[in-house]
Design brief:
- It is built from 8 helices and 18 strands.
- By secondary structure, it is an alpha+beta fold.
- The strands form 3 sheets. Strands 1, 2, 3, 12, 13, 14, 15, 16 and 17 form a 9-stranded mixed beta sheet that branches. A 6-stranded antiparallel beta sheet has the order 5-4-9-6-7-8. It has a 3-stranded antiparallel beta sheet with strand order 10-11-18.
- The radius of gyration is 20 Å and the shape is globular.
- The chain binds cobalt (II) ion and zinc ion.
- Cobalt (II) ion binds next to loops.
Amino acid sequence: MNILKLLEELTQVNSPSGNESDIRSFISSEVSPYCDDVTVDAMGNIIAHKKGKGKKIMFAAHMDEIGIIVKSIDDKGFIRFSALGGLNVRNLVNLRVRFLNGTEGVIGAQEEAFKDKPALDKLFIDIGEKDKSEAEKKVNIGDAAVFEGGFSENNDIVISKALDNRAGCAIIIKALSEIKDNENDLYFVFTVQEEVGLRGAKTAAFSINPDIAVAVDVTDTGDTPDAPAMAVEMGKGAAIKVMDRSVICDPDVRVKMIETAKENKIPYQLEIMTDGGTDAGAIHLSRAGVKTGGISVPTRYIHSPSEMVSIGDIENCAKLVYNLAISEW
Ligand code: CO
Ligand code: ZN
């Protein structure tokens, strides 16, 4: 399986939180050849099961991406919107958005948008229609859009929208495709609505009730000019999560990850991310608690249309997931 090609295809599907149907069909058909069964639960999570007699291990990657949702349309056809996920208002002006029906627009800003603290309600989307009724022929309340951000590669580096978290999806698909005879009972889960509060992971973890869980997602880096202090660097290997704002990872799982990386000569680094959470946050609090860890792809410019990752890091994350899946726990 060519992970670069898979990653390109995954990132170019438009599926913001709550609107995951296109990415769900794409991933379902990718994983079905490698699984005993693939089901979709009421929330829309994909649960791909590869049966085994050993420990029940859940690998989770969220498949939604950040975006926006239409709140109202004014008489002149300008669209007001809310965020689907954590948007940095300062970075939104003049970006292009694409609605799921293909309609494109540009984000504009009123003068007062940046007067005090940046205000999302002083931004609007212009789809170029002359008034409200013309605009409503293309876009309606509740319609969602994503940021435009094509895929480009240069040696080890990839730039694209939605690497958060199609990178994680690519990693667990790749690992799954390589597993032959597994002793462990393996669940590969592609969750919905992570960006709006880890929602899909919550119900998926409840229904699977795993012994061990691993969330695969992106993490910030501390390696650009004036970046906040953080030990993670792009290109330095799989990041093994110690903690983020949503979880303190289970120490046994963390140690197992480190040992597995060492045994298999997989470059790794330790991650503490102070600025965000992951599905691990919801999973470890499921039922009476789940021993949970995290594997992360060091990513620059997260939640922008130009996220940047190293393909080498992604391959190393996939190796780590594969080796954890087949190892004895
Ligand atoms: Co995110
Ligand atoms: Zn993410």
